[in-house]
Amino acid sequence: MSFINVASVDEIEPGTGKEVSVEGTDIVVLRSDEGDFHAMAKECPHAGVSMVDGIIEDGCVECVAHGAQFDLETGQPLSPAYDPLKIYPVQIVDGFIAVDLKA
Ligand code: FES
């Protein structure tokens, strides 16, 4: 595992997200209303819209463009027409959000 700091915890308010480019990989970090962080590929596998406005609810993330939902642990689509969304492990260390892009 190789976690890389991508943002400080204070940069992302609950219920919002941030696009980050890390070593040439574009990702999105979302913070749920409850305050937990989730990292994923920036582009939704359905039609490439950014997941930055994604809605986190009941263990899944929903793309706001057309409503595709993905499991937050596995990235598997909950609607069968879509490919999986890449999900990255997240750690919080000393106030920073660290993401493992190699996972
Ligand atoms: S682009 Fe995400 S559901 Fe269509």
From TrEMBL:
Signal sequence coordinates: none
An example molecular function term from Gene Ontology annotations: oxidoreductase activity, acting on paired donors, with incorporation or reduction of molecular oxygen
UniProt entry tagged with the keyword Chaperone: no
Family matches, as InterPro entries: Rieske_2Fe-2S, Rieske_2Fe-2S_sf
Tagged with keyword Cell membrane: no
Top-level taxon in the UniProt lineage: Bacteria
Start and end residues of each Rieske domain: 4-99
Keywords carried by this UniProt record: 2Fe-2S, Iron, Iron-sulfur, Metal-binding
Name of this chain's protein: Rieske [2Fe-2S] domain protein
The organism's taxonomic lineage, starting at the top: Bacteria, Bacillati, Actinomycetota, Actinomycetes, Actinomycetales
